Amino acid sequence: MCAELSTHCGAWRMGNFTMRRTSKLTRVAVGVASIALAATACGGTSDSDSSSSKEDLGLAIAYDIGGKGDQSFNDAAYAGLQKAQKEFGYKTADIEPTEGETDADKEQRLASLAKQGYNPVIGVGFAYGPAMDAVAKKYPDTTFGIVDSVVEGDNVASLVFAEQEASYLAGVAAAKATKTNTVGFVGGVDIPLIHKFEAGYKQGVQDTNSKVKVVSQYLTQTAEEGGFSSPDKGKAAAEGQIEKKADVVYQAAGLSGQGVIEAAAKAKVWAIGVDSDQYQQEALAAYKDYILTSALKDVGGAVYALAQSVDNDKPLTGVQTFDLKVDGVGLAESNPKMTEIPGLTDAVAKAKAGIIDGTIKVKTE
Hints:
Layout: E1 18-21, E2 25-29, H1 33-36, E3 60-62, H2 73-88, E4 93-95, H3 103-116, E5 121-123, H4 129-138, E6 144-147, E7 156-161, H5 163-177, E8 182-189, H6 192-208, E9 213-220, H7 231-243, E10 248-252, H8 257-267, E11 270-275, E12 291-297, H9 299-311, E13 318-322, E14 329-331, H10 344-357
Parallel strand pairs: 2-13, 3-4, 3-5, 5-6, 6-7, 7-13, 8-9, 8-10, 10-11, 11-12
Antiparallel strand pairs: 1-2, 12-14
C-alpha cells in the first residue's frame, strides 16, 4: 500500500513483491486488493493440469470453516492460490472442510495432500494447529503453512497478522462516520484471535472520539456452533445493534459477516467489512453502497509468499508476520463516499502513520 492513502483501490499494488528475512521473523510486503480482485466465483475442489517440470506438485490449501465463497478469509486464500497457479504454471488443489469435522479429519486431509506430492500445503485457519503439528513431523520434506496460528516445526511457516492494526484504522473511520455516537462490533467466535479485531477497533474509535460508544457481540463461543458460517446469526446480531442506534457496524465473522452487511444495508447504515475488500465483492454488490470500507488482511499475499519461497527452493519457515508497516494489513479505500465524510481520510492517514512510526501502540486485548 502506498505511504499515503489514495482515493482508489489501485493504491494496493502487487507489483514489487519483496521479502526481508531475519532469524525467526520474516515480514513480507504484499498488496491485498489486487489479489482479492483475482478471486472468482464459488466452487468446489479445483485442479489444473501441470505444465511444470517440478518434481513436486504445486500449492494446496485446505479451507477453514465457511469454505470458499465467504467473500472474506477463505476467498482471499484462494486468490493467493490462483496467483501462484498462474505464475508458476503448476497443479494446485483446494479442499473444502466438512461439517462437524474433527482434528483427525483435518490431519487426514493434510496428510493426503502431502502424500500426493503437493508442496507447500497450507491450512487456512487456526483450527488446523493440532493437525498440522502432527502431520508436519511425518512429512519433513514438505513445507507446511498455517494461517492465524503458530506451529513449531522446521518445515512449518506460521502466517500471522496484526489484525488489531487494521481494526484500529476501521475504528477511526467508524468514529468519523457515525452520526449517533454509537457503533457496533460483531465477532464470529469468542476467541483470542477475534479479540484482537475488537480491541483494535475499540481503541481506534475511542482515540478518535471518546464520546462514541461501542456495542459488541460475539455470535458463538465455539466455531462448531456456526459463528463463522451463519449469515443469519450475523444478521440478527447487527439488527440488534442497529436497534441500539449503532449506525456503523464492523464485523469480523467470516461468512456470518455477510448477514451483518445485509442488515446494515437494509437499515441504510454503514457496514465495515473484513479480510478482503468487500466493497469489491461481486456477491455483495447489492449492498456495496453501504460498505464504508474493509479492514484488510492479506491472507492471499501470505499464501502466495509461501508458494513463491518453495518455488525458489528457499522455503519460508518459522513465524511470518504481516503487519501495517509491510502492507500485510490495511484499510480499503474503494468506496468513494469515504472522501465525502469530513476528516475521515486525514484521520485514517494520521493514524496509519502513527502506528507505523510507533507513536500509536495498538492493543490486542
